[in-house]
Amino acid sequence: MQFEQYIVELSRVRLLEPAQEQVLWRKFKEEGDEDARRLLIESYQPLVFKQALPYRQLQSVMDMVQEGTVGLIEAVEHYEPERGVAFSLFAVHRIRGRMLNFLQKEGNSDVACMDALPADGGDSLKDNLADMSPSVMEQAESHELASRLHQAMDRLPAKEKAVLEGLYMQSEAAGDMAEGLQVSISHVYRLQKNGIRRVRGMLSRFMHNW
Q: Which residues contact 88 (CB under 8 A, 6 or more apart)?
């Protein structure tokens, strides 16, 4: 499928009402209804496209959309509605995972720097730090985690903290951050990656035992 054709089809997608979505999940999970499965996949294509856009300078958007759609299908197959987790939160990790795996197989040297970058539209730092397991995803937005995250951020070296706050909380571009800190863009990405690693380490025991 060509990009232009995909955009046209994407424009036709209509978000499901919560009641409609519940009916579709029930039909698919309980009755094996393939039409319900297809509608669920189609309705969440905008989520795939959103996740693909940040990587457009590294790879063809359509390649990323294709890989992300595989992740979306896997998410639909494995999702358990009764757990009460929002499907979009559950699916986004599989979608991103597929995209990053594809970039790594393609030998893209920038993946190590890109894997923690926020997607256009503002995925939070908490989303990127959260363990990929469903038990953490269910509670990733809780006040307790937010409080501990801010405590961990306050313990970071000044430049790492500035980079994480700039990229994730103030939506600054990496180039602007580099100029303000008088460092190279690649150094901004290193600071970002080091900061993420430190915060993950500080939160790891808490998140493991939650």
A: 44, 47
The predicted model scores a pTM of 0.53
pLDDT digits (tens, 9 = 90+) for 147-174: 667 778 888 899 998 888 887 666 678 8
Residue 177 Cα to chain centre, angstroms? 22
Alpha-carbon span 97 to 66, nearest angstrom: 13
Structure tokens at 10: 């994407």
Q: Give the integer Cα–Cα distance in Å for 95 and 87.
A: 12
Structure token pair of residue 5 = 């054709």
Residue with tokens 């294709």: 66
Contact (Cβ atoms closer than 8 angstroms) between residue 44 and residue 95: no
Compute the distance between CA of residue 171 and CA of residue 140 in angstroms, rounded to an integer: 20
- The alpha carbon of 202 is separated from its chain's Cα centroid by a whole number of angstroms, namely 21
